[in-house]
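Design request, tokens follow.
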């Protein structure tokens, strides 16, 4: 049933304005695009993904967390959403997903790839999305944020992972992916990366960020800034990886670890 300005999904009522997860009303021309776009994007990922050859650095701390059955909070720039969608598939990772048009087709794609979703955004339903993610972490699932999404500004991290880490005690792990061959869509807000077929890819993981569960506002701000710096650090390494000499790459391999 539709109200004058909102198309409802399901029967759940919003708790408050901050917890509203109802889908915004879309014209029929936009609604019919959602399954079409989702099918095209999913097909691209299914064709391209298996050809990518990944090298992963900085995974040892993550394996240690997983060995202790400690879920993690992942944060990455929207630019690399296509290659990471393939790399992290079928692990039940819960992704914050906007209720806007882009989020509606994105949800169909990522759920087919084996992700879960928490519906919310910075403007509608964000607090509810964090509550859902906190519950999933307590159930033992990892959670993830496209940290400058859904609409930017590019490379400016939002605070969501820090708040979630404070709620749950889970570590924040940032990463970035670079490829030796691909195309940057410079007209998109995120400079979307489309890797080439059979491209080599490097995933650079950052140092885990821990947020005390009793963190005050100053600590939250400090951890937010730490996350921003670490996101920039791994982005710069990954983006420049394939222009480095093998000696320079070996130095990073020794520094960051496998």
């Amino acid at each position: 049933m539709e109200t004058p300005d909102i198309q409802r999904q399901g029967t759940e009522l919003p708790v408050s304005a901050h917890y509203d997860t109802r889908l915004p009303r879309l014209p029929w021309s936009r609604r019919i695009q959602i399954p079409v776009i989702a099918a095209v994007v999913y097909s691209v990922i299914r064709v391209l993904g298996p050809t990518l050859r990944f090298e992963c650095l900085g995974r040892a701390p993550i394996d240690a967390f997983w060995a202790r059955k400690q879920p993690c909070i992942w944060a990455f720039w929207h630019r690399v959403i296509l290659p990471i969608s393939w790399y992290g598939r079928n692990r039940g990772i819960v992704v914050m997903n906007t209720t806007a048009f882009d989020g509606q087709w994105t949800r169909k794609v990522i759920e087919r790839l084996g992700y879960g979703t928490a519906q919310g955004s910075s403007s509608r339903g964000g607090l509810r999305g964090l509550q859902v993610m906190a519950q999933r972490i307590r159930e033992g699932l990892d959670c993830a944020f496209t940290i400058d999404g859904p609409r930017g500004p590019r490379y400016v991290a939002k605070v969501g992972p820090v708040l979630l880490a404070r709620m749950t005690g889970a570590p924040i792990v940032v990463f970035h992916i670079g490829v030796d061959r691909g195309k940057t869509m410079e007209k998109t807000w995120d400079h979307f990366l489309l890797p080439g077929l059979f491209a080599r890819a490097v995933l650079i993981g950052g140092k885990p960020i821990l947020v005390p569960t009793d963190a005050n506002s100053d600590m939250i701000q400090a951890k937010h800034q730490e996350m921003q710096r670490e996101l920039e650090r791994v982005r710069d390494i990954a983006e420049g990886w394939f222009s480095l000499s093998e000696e320079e790459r070996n130095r990073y391999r020794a520094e960051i670890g496998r």
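Comment from the thread starter after seeing the answer: thanks! The radius of gyration is 18 Å.
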